[in-house]
Amino acid sequence: MESYKSFDPTEHGLSSNFRCKVPQEELLKLLESLGHGDHREGSIGIGLDSCVLPTRHDGISIVQTTDFFYPLVNDPYYQGKIAAANVLSDLYAMGVTECDNMLMLLGISSQMTLQERRISTKLVMEGFRDACLQAGTSVNGGQTVLNPWYIIGGVASSVCSRDEYIMPENAKVGDVLVLTKPLGTQIAVNAHQWLEEPSQWEKIEQVISKEDVIKAYLTAMFSMARLNRNGAKLMHKYGAHAATDVTGFGILGHANNLVQNQKESVSFIIKSLPIIAKMAEVAKACKINFKLLEGFSAETSGGLFICLPPEQAAKYCEEIQQLDKHQAWIIGEVIAGNHKATISPDVQIIEVDYY
Amino acid sequence: MESYKSFDPTEHGLSSNFRCKVPQEELLKLLESLGHGDHREGSIGIGLDSCVLPTRHDGISIVQTTDFFYPLVNDPYYQGKIAAANVLSDLYAMGVTECDNMLMLLGISSQMTLQERRISTKLVMEGFRDACLQAGTSVNGGQTVLNPWYIIGGVASSVCSRDEYIMPENAKVGDVLVLTKPLGTQIAVNAHQWLEEPSQWEKIEQVISKEDVIKAYLTAMFSMARLNRNGAKLMHKYGAHAATDVTGFGILGHANNLVQNQKESVSFIIKSLPIIAKMAEVAKACKINFKLLEGFSAETSGGLFICLPPEQAAKYCEEIQQLDKHQAWIIGEVIAGNHKATISPDVQIIEVDYY
């Protein structure tokens, strides 16, 4: 367990049950109805992590992404770090390691007292800024509104030459799939809330102790706050063929988006699921269908999901462990196929120790 | 009056009392708690409408801005256009005429029915997209969440060489001040709401007819939806020394930000205020202190406020009238001074005809 002093509950006000993204189906329907996107050569749009757009300057593209969402954790400082790590992750998934600018997007809860707003906003902004500094970038610009619900997010932009990003489209039969963070963050965050909800807690207390719920929650928090930047750097070093990051649509949702973008006729088969310890049991016991084992449980600021040449994958995992002090896993294979991602029927659950 | 068929919710399958708006009462309460009449904060880059950041590529900067806010008008399509025009305006204020990418930020109201959400979101997105196409750019990327209140906004980015933007810092004594859109949009939007609020309507019915309220509202709507792009192009042609755009802080708020950013010891004096017809009287009669004549009434997607050499200003105004079919005005002067913007005690109100 990393050394961490819990956020003081007297500064509460960032209740974490707000998360509610628009269902992917509905969003895609809306976007399609617009003939969404751009027809300029070399631009890519929906389904992928960042847009890549040629500029009026020869050989220079802009790679850009935005994300904003509702708080997940009680600690506003960590919430800020998670928000920044989550936005930056979409650049990292494209192999972009340098962010030229970050904008911060904030909706400050109108339901808080003035005091609560001031304290929590200061902490959120500090966490966001610190994660950006760690990423070698800084926050210049943004927008703040009052809103019934707290909102935190950002916009990450990188002005890149062609060799600075990796188009996520060159997976080859025989590649292996690597994942750089464990799954189960949503379950961990929910289980932590259930400590204060007796009717839910009763359902899971047979499979997990309160102490382990707290450990799982903090593991999720640290994992979400960790940058995928080293993972992105190593994608270049070890010749990654394609990558995405695992967020709201779950590992299989993102794997499907990625496999549909591949030039060659490939499919992905996922043979193991690294999950924060005991979260698979909690997911089963809680009677809420998170679809964790089906691969659809939402993650926030999840790991990179990378197609790597088989001879490089072990070295990739070894080096990222050295740099980040956390494990990455070979979780599956790229096979010949018709652009489908599936989880193997005999999928192995890897219980990931608490950080 | 431009040809415009009023937004009819029933034509889109919505009930006739559908409003794509934040409950006004609730919003006003929030604004009071903030201590000023605006729900927006400016970007972190003090004095600049957009941030300008050098990139890792020689001579290439990224110019970027974001804004998002709550709906102002009932017509979702126009609301989308206004949001895009408002975001782009911050680039235009820097003389940047080419936007390389737009991201769209949406919060879809969780208080709407599924049907209302789909229809209104489709229209908002179409308006946003059409304004972007008109601006020669397109929407690639963004984020959508469900939120109690409707939110619409975007992120505009331009990758620029040094000659493509005009740093707003070179105003000279003897320059004149030009404004490209009339003031009074906030009053017009409010007056239009008061048509349905008898207690407020009673206060203004002595000074304006219902018909003229509707005309003023539509004039405001068309004005907010109009791009400042031609204004930006002409800033280069006529050698503008500095500019900003008029939004949430009102004309004097933005004039003050701009004058404080000037290298030379100058002040601005505003001698006339072009205001949508009858809005000055409405502002006075309504007993709500919008501070319109004091220069602090919030505008959305307002005009460019430009410091131009005196021999160029008339030509600038003439050409923008030809291109945009709407007037611009010489409203004041740059004088020697200590970085203050003031409105002349004998300021002249220019009543601007309904579009």
TrEMBL record, chains A, B:
GO molecular function: ATP binding; selenide, water dikinase activity
Top-rank lineage group of the source organism: Eukaryota
All residue ranges annotated as the PurM-like N-terminal domain in the record: 49-151
PurM-like C-terminal domain sequence ranges: 172-340
GO cellular component: cytoplasm
This protein's record includes keyword DNA damage: no
InterPro entries: PurM-like_C_dom, PurM-like_C_sf, PurM-like_N, PurM-like_N_sf, SPS/SelD
Entry-linked NCBIfam families: selD (TIGR00476)
Protein name: Selenide, water dikinase
Organism whose genome encodes this protein: Trichoplax adhaerens (Trichoplax reptans)
